[in-house]
Specification:
This protein has 134 residues and is mostly helical. It is built from 10 helices and no strands.
Amino acid sequence: MKQNIHDYLAELEDIPGTRVYTAQRARKGYWMNQFAMSLMQDENRARWKADEKAYLADWPMSDEQRQSILDRDYNRMLDLGGNIYFLAKVFATDGLSFVQAVSTMTGMSVADYQAMMLAGGRSPEGLRSKSSGN
């Protein structure tokens, strides 16, 4: 029996610690990602650094999206439609490397995160499903 696309996409939300960037997330985070991409221009980075709240006010996104950006809560940004490759412009503007920023998303130190990744990444053992608990 062929699986309904909506059921299939819903199953992706069951993967612990992973946010699959779906079309739904892309639509939800469009303006957040456009904001992030705007930071590629020097004059926009200067405006952002001068007054983050004022700069974000120019973008038609939700208050929750704005707050997640101000809090530098990258996991929440992903939940709200952010794309990690676009959000990289935010942490690069803050002077963080990809490893430094992503380690904050795992609750690990930079050294521990880097060691885990050099050893092959997260173990495939352990929690594989939020709903089933295994």
